[in-house]
Amino acid sequence: MLCRICKSKGERKKAVVYIRHHRLALCKEHFLEWFERQVQRTVKKFKMFNKNEKVLVAVSGGKDSLSLWYVLNKLGYETYGFHVSLGIKGWEYSKKSLEVCKKFSERINRPLIVFDLKKEFGYSIEEIAKGVGRKDVCSVCGTFKRYLMNRVAIKEGFKVVATGHNLDDESALLLSNTMRWEVGYLGRQYPVLPEFGGFARKVKPFCFLTEKEIVSYAILNEIKYMETGCPNAKEATSAVYKRALAMLEHEMPGTKLRFYKEFLERARPIFERELKENLELNECEVCGMPTTAPVCSVCRTLERLKGRC
């Protein structure tokens, strides 16, 4: 298969990537250009950030987050990495993840901020989940990571936090929330969550790019990433929704992209109106971060854990 762009110029260059839902075959050079152009368009379309703002990129050591850090840095944005060392599976998985992030930070010559959960809170994420009787480590992990991303961003003077959530993630989340008619979550699902009441702006520049496209970008740029996912990910229900959407995508290419884009344009504004217009936020009595309760969920969890030790 020949690269479509090269072919249009009268050149015969083999394609290295075929983007099925766009029916687009591209060589290495033109795929990288296409990918970076898609990211730039998404950033500009949703007014995620500009060249004058520092961007805190949440990095786990996986392909999505490292590719995001790489492309934003290449596009000329002032980026800083942020990694949470969670202490997963006897620290072996977390140690490898941190090492990957540190080496990548050195490669692109950008700073990496590291938060060690065990050192700062006294517990690994698995110890926290087990200590409060939670079998689903992923949900506890998600709560703590969101909390820490915001806490570090505010403390270090970042107005925007970027995450590597891709189209597969967003469409699976959308299907999950639709199946349960989670009006609040549906109203808030968007590529940009603006800063307000002590929360930094959250952005998802990869929201229209598939996992396959991001893997291809990482490989072609020789980005070394953690090829094995988190050991606790098998517990996540999102995998079920991803498999369902993958089946639909195989039969009808473009399903995920249409599902997500049509939701953003047609349905999301309806759900957004259902949200409470005046969300009352308080400062957590323990840590000072924004919360709807007197004490935020992270501090409540840590207090429960300390009380059981």
Overview of the structural elements:
The protein is α/β, with parallel strands linked by helices and 309 residues long. It has 13 helices and 10 strands. 52% of the residues lie in helices and 12% in strands. The longest helix has 20 residues, at 137-156. It starts with a helix and ends with a helix. Helix 3 (63-74) packs across helix 10 (211-220). The mean pLDDT is 92. The chain is globular and about 70 Å long. It has 2 domains: 47-227 and 237-277, Rossmann fold, CATH 3.40.50.620; 280-308, no CATH class. The protein has a 6-stranded mixed β-sheet with strand order 5-4-3-6-8-7, sandwiched between helices. Strands 1-2 form a two-stranded antiparallel sheet. The chain has helices at residues 4-8, 28-45, 63-74, 92-108, 117-121, 125-131, 137-156, 167-180, 183-188, 211-220, 238-251, 255-274, 297-308; strands at 17-19, 24-26, 54-58, 78-85, 112-116, 160-162, 192-193, 201-203, 282-283, 290-291. Strand 3 (54-58), helix 3 (63-74) and strand 4 form a beta-alpha-beta unit.
